[in-house]
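Quick one, C-alpha cells below:
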C-alpha cells in the first residue's frame, strides 16, 4: 500500500506523503512521480504537512523530480513545510530552484 495520497486534476497533481520523506519511502515516491510525468503531468505539488523530517534521499528525490519536470516544461512546488524542513531547504538553497512554502 502506498504511503502517500495522490490527487490529480488534469496535468496537475498533489502528492501528500503519509510520513517523513526518508530513504525507506523514497523509492515508492520516485516511481509514482515518474509514472505521473510519463502520463502527462506537468505540475507536481508535494504537501509535506505530515512530514517532520526529510533526509538526504528525500532531498535527492525532490531535486530529481524538479529536473525531470523541467525537461518536460513542468514545475515542482513543495508546500506546507515545517519550520525545520524549511530552514534546511533555505540553508541548502534548494528554495532557489523550485517553490517551497511553509505551513
Amino acid at each position: 500500500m502506498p504511503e502517500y495520497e495522490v490527487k490529480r486534476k488534469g496535468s496537475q497533481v498533489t502528492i501528500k506523503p503519509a510520513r517523513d520523506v526518508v530513504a525507506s519511502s523514497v523509492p515508492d515516491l520516485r516511481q509514482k512521480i515518474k509514472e505521473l510525468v510519463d502520463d502527462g503531468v506537468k505540475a507536481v505539488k508535494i504537501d509535506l504537512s505530515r512530514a517532520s523530517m526529510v533526509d538526504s534521499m528525500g532531498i535527492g528525490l525532490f531535486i530529481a523530480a524538479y529536473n525531470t519536470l523541467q525537461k518536460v516544461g513542468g514545475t515542482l512546488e513543495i508546500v506546507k513545510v515545517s519550520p525545520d524542513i524549511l530552514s534546511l531547504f533555505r540553508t541548502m538553497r534548494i528554495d532557489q530552484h523550485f517553490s517551497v512554502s511553509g505551513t
